[in-house]
């Protein structure tokens, strides 16, 4: 059984998309085993996205991610990392397949509604960035 970190980013929360996105996870046999709203500080967002610190969009991305509440979740299921990435669609909404979250709701490459871990190693690091063992209902 695999785990991944999902974030509904501040644009998704402020646009009222939490219920719709959670429903998609539930409809696809993905179990939510932890969930909370977080308002990241700029430095917490910088820590989370540290791998991107040399990218030109780093400053803007971390401003955006610390601009309001985000919904962070731990998802569990078979192949859930790939499954979640399939449900999200490509980073750039213009390349995202029909019926994906980003294709349906995003209209900006940065404010792209959701984040999902890309591999088991990053999932472990990202989950422990937000949750301790007592917050995860395994
Ligand atoms: P995410 O999957 O959370 O991982 C890194 C984030 O950086 C990405 O989603 C987007 O929000 C943002 N991002 C990636 N590429 C670009 C880009 N070319 N311009 C602006 N933001 C980007």
From TrEMBL:
One of its GO terms (molecular function) is nucleoside diphosphate kinase activity. Keywords: ATP-binding, Cytoplasm, Kinase, Magnesium, Metal-binding, Nucleotide metabolism, Nucleotide-binding, Phosphoprotein, Transferase. It is found in: Cytoplasm. ATP binds at residues 9, 57, 85, 91, 102, 112. The active site is at 115 (pros-phosphohistidine intermediate). Its main location: cytoplasm. It catalyses: a ribonucleoside 5'-diphosphate + ATP = a ribonucleoside 5'-triphosphate + ADP; a 2'-deoxyribonucleoside 5'-diphosphate + ATP = a 2'-deoxyribonucleoside 5'-triphosphate + ADP. Gene3D superfamilies: Nucleoside diphosphate kinase-like domain (3.30.70.141). Its cofactor is Mg(2+). Signal peptide: none annotated. One of its GO terms (cellular component) is cytoplasm. Homotetramer. Belongs to the NDK family. This is Nucleoside diphosphate kinase. It comes from Desulfonema magnum.
């Amino acid at each position: 059984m695999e785990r991944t970190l999902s974030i509904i980013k501040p644009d998704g929360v402020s646009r009222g998309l939490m219920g719709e996105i959670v429903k998609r996870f539930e409809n696809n046999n993905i179990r939510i085993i932890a969930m909370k709203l977080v308002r990241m500080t700029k430095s917490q967002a910088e820590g989370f996205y540290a791998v991107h610190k040399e990218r030109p969009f780093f400053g803007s991305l971390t401003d955006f991610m610390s601009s309001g509440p985000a919904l962070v979740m731990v998802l569990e299921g078979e192949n859930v990392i790939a499954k979640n990435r399939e449900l999200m669609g490509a980073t750039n909404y213009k390349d995202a397949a029909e019926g994906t979250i980003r294709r349906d709701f995003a209209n900006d490459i940065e404010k792209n509604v959701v984040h999902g871990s890309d591999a088991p190693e990053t999932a472990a690091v990202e989950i422990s960035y937000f949750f301790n063992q007592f917050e995860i209902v395994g």
